[in-house]
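Structural prep section.
Before we set up the soaks we want a predicted structure of the protein with magnesium ion in place, mainly to decide which crystallisation condition to try first. Input record follows.
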Amino acid sequence: MTALLETKGIWQRFGGLVANSDVSISVGRGEIVGLIGPNGAGKSTLFNLIAGVYTPTQGSIIFDGEDVTGLSAAERCERGVGRTFQVVKSFETMTVIDNVIVGALIRTTVMREARRKAHEVLEFCGLAGRANTLASQLIPSEKRRLEVARALATEPKLLLLDEVLTGLTPIEAQTGVELVRKVRATGVTVLMVEHVMEIVMPLVDRAIVLDLGKVLVEGKPSEVVRDPKVITAYLGD
Ligand code: ADP
Ligand code: MG
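Run finished without errors. Recording the tokens verbatim:
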């Protein structure tokens, strides 16, 4: 079967800076893939290119058999690219349920249906008891789960997770890991950007390591962590 996502020879320049250089990756249907690498490696840039925040300087992005390179972020979301956002200020003044309804309204204009979907997703993410709480009142780990819930409410085929496990306590991170596994069990493909290898490696089927804007290594987590190139990149010499 063809991959769900493919980037083909992606280049992204910001002025004179090359943030992604000739990046070709693929993510198979049903996989959990980790995108890792040191700070400044180009992970967030690639993530934003896939989500449609930027259009690449060169190269193309194929999603679910269609070239989406020229499509907006909203158009990609409609096609099934879901992503987490940091909870922005305006959303902080809204309740948890209303935040998730915003996501659900991508699929339906019927408010009752959007509300039903939002409740279902909150239950799935372990936030049912927080539905009527203001987003600003959540603890950091709950905010991360709210971001996941809002993305899931858009009914994605591919869920892009941006460092959702970073900065959590070990117990909170474990809850997050279990949530990602549960998401995949529903048939959603996951591409997750994480800075910290210890968190992602036990979770992912495959890891792609970026360094200096390029794919350095990719493979099974057990192989990747032992790769001398990866060790050197992380030690920064
Ligand atoms: P990572 O997420 O792996 O830490 P980024 O993709 O954020 O790396 O950044 C890669 C490089 O691109 C960095 O040198 C960063 O400063 C630069 N960069 C990222 N976004 C922009 C932007 N919008 N404008 C200019 N430079 C950027
Ligand atoms: Mg980043």
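Observations: The longest helix spans residues 170-185.
Flagged for discussion at group meeting.
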